[in-house]
Amino acid sequence: MTEAVEYRAYRRVEEARAKGRPTGRDYIDNLISNFTEFHGDRRFGDDAAVVSGIGRLRNMPITVIATDKGRTTKEKVAHNFGSPHPEGYRKALRQMKLAEKFHRPVLCIVDTAGAYPGIGAEERGQAQAIAENLMAMMSLKTPVISLFIGEGGSGGALALAVADRVFMMENAVYSVISPEGCASILWKDAKKMKEAAECLKLTAQDLMALGVAERVISEPENFREETRQAKQVYYRLEDLLYEEFQWLRKKSEEELLAQRYERFRKFGRPDSEQRADCQAGQ
Amino acid sequence: MMYQGLFRKPKNALEIRDGEMEAGQPYIADDAYVKCPKCRKMLYAADVRDNLEVCPECGHHFPVAARRRIELLVDPQSFQEMFSPGAGNGEGREKRAAEAIEAARNPIGFPGYEEKLSAARQKSGEQEGVLCGLARIGGLPTCIFVMNMDFMMGSMGTAIGEAITQLFEFAAEKRLPVVGYTVSGGARMQEGILSLMQMAKVSGAVKRHSDEGLLYAVVLTDPTTGGVTASFAMQGDVILAEPGALIGFAGPRVIEQTILQKLPEGFQRAELLLKKGFIDDIVHRRKQRTYLINLLGLHSDQIQI
Question: Residue B87 has what pLDDT?
Fold first, then answer.
């Protein structure tokens, strides 16, 4: 086995974090027309790590919530490198409740190393904010699709991914812990992150096999913003998302919520086949 | 010449014992005394045991194994273990829960996980990190789950998520309240993304139980962190904590490494969470049973329709 094959998972992690890779904001700019950004959680402040608002996906009004890492260094600092504070999750929840009220579907675009581990974040209830989102999203009476475009860091990503469908970009990853964190806890050596990445089953393909994701969207080689290939990816995504939302909107509220419950209920149930059972399929 | 041979390595255990005897020290079993980590006093272990595993000197709450905690809390002989992996011999749901252990043995094939599980089973004498079931507290029937720190740091994997989910589903069906005790280092990374999914799964079951108008009271014990705090630990209608319990999302070390500062004294402790408005009260272990009897009583009209 060559090294390249052996550490295929970590190469995805590196690509997911790569400089110049499209950010949450790039996806909004390319997929959503008439985007109008809304700020603030009405409790404490406005978290720039989470960008939220409304716009149109083709002709359909839609709520969009994205974690945004920022493009330039200045932006990255302003967006806290895409790691939200509790205000970010509460802002997201406020937007979801509005979406429910106005019968708009919700698109969550996820790219975060995780919820921010800082003093202020803890004091303002990071765990409580995430827990509240999980519970509220389980019963949100409007379709939700979460699109993972880069890093999906643990609870901080899940708080925007209790969804009816999870779509993964080909090089996006989604994990309970970062490979570095896993290696340092298990083997007391953060440098073993490549081995850890392999063990964690965090690639889009792995997640599909486990039933955590319904679809993998292929990417061109060296997927960067402002390239012609990038445009093609957005066109394709627009189609896929639009069709999937149309499909989900046909369901009654009861059916939608029952299926969302079942979507998560199956993980770890002894008699269940851990595979996706949605029409998104192949 | 009293120091003669002091640095010589003893040949075997007997020789060490001999040395002690000669020095005139009586033999003391290793577990006869414990040192309180808070007041640093040496305590007679039996005194701590008789005091609900609380330091008689300073009130420090020692960790309690799940089975012992249930014994201290519920009416004698009223606990009927259900759903927890290990409750295994029943029929139907209980049996399915037992099968969950096997299914969850190593769901993503993580290297070394089976060995860790076996070691944890030996150490704790339990099959998994949670005990679930039906009990009476002050005569009031309630569903109860108690997590176990002895089992892989109380980390939550699929077996724990499944057991707690089944408990909430059962409670919703039978119209019973749920009392939970949490202690956890977070999601169990050896089960990868499937552990993370348990947070959403349990949240869904808590929500359905809640929508039935039923009570869920949770007591956070030291330490409750990570994915457990960010899901069912923070979803109670009433959230209580034991004195001094560490409660947070990120662990203190992770935060220190991120912000490159030392954390202030008392950070992430129950007392600070109370001040910041994230828990309803701090309840001493001795008063928890009375507290819960009162709480369950105040909500029992809904139960017996």
Answer: 72
Block mean pLDDT (10 aa), chain B, length 305: 63 57 63 89 92 93 94 95 74 57 76 92 92 96 96 94 96 97 96 96 98 97 96 98 96 89 93 97 97 95 53
Q: Inform me whether the C-beta atom of residue B158 falls under 8 Å from chain A C-beta atoms.
A: yes
Residue B155: exposed, middle, or buried by beta-carbon count in 10 A (0-12, 13-18, 19+)?
Answer: buried
* A272 occurs within a structural domain: no
From first CA to last CA, the distance across chain A in angstroms is 30
Decide if pLDDT at A59 tops 90.
yes
Contact: A117, B250; criterion CB under 8 Å: yes
**Distance (Å, whole) CA B247 – CA A127:** 9
Q: What is the mean pLDDT of chain A?
A: 92
CATH topology of domain B63-303: 2-enoyl-CoA Hydratase; Chain A, domain 1 (3.90.226)
Total domains in chain A come to 1
Q: Is residue A246 part of a domain?
A: yes
Is the ipTM value over 0.85, yes or no? Answer: yes
Torsion angle, alpha carbons of A260, A263, A269, A272, to 10: 130
B window 87-116, beta carbon within 8 A of A = 96-97, 99-100, 102-104, 107-108, 110-111
3-state secondary structure of B257: helix
Within 13 Å of residue B303, how many CA atoms lie on the same side as its CB?
A: 18
Q: Is residue A219 classed as helix, strand or coil in its secondary structure?
A: coil
SS3 B186: coil
Percentage of residues of chain A with pLDDT beyond 90: 84
User: Range of A166's domain?
Assistant: 3-265
- Sorted by where each begins, the domain ranges of chain B are 1-61, 63-303
Measure the CA–CA gap between A208 and A215, rounded to whole angstroms: 7
Find, among A164, A189, A184, A159, the residue nearest to A174 by Cα.
A159
Candidates A60, A127, A66; CA nearest to A95 is A66
Nearest by Cα to A266 from A279, A275, A257, A258: A275
d(CA B72, CA B63): 13
Nearest-by-Cβ selection for B207 from A135, A200, A207: A135
d(CA A234, CA B106): 38
CA separation for the pair A192, A195 (Å, rounded): 6
Contact assessment for residue A110 and residue A159, using Cβ atoms and an 8 Å cutoff: no
CATH of the domain at A51: 3.90.226.10
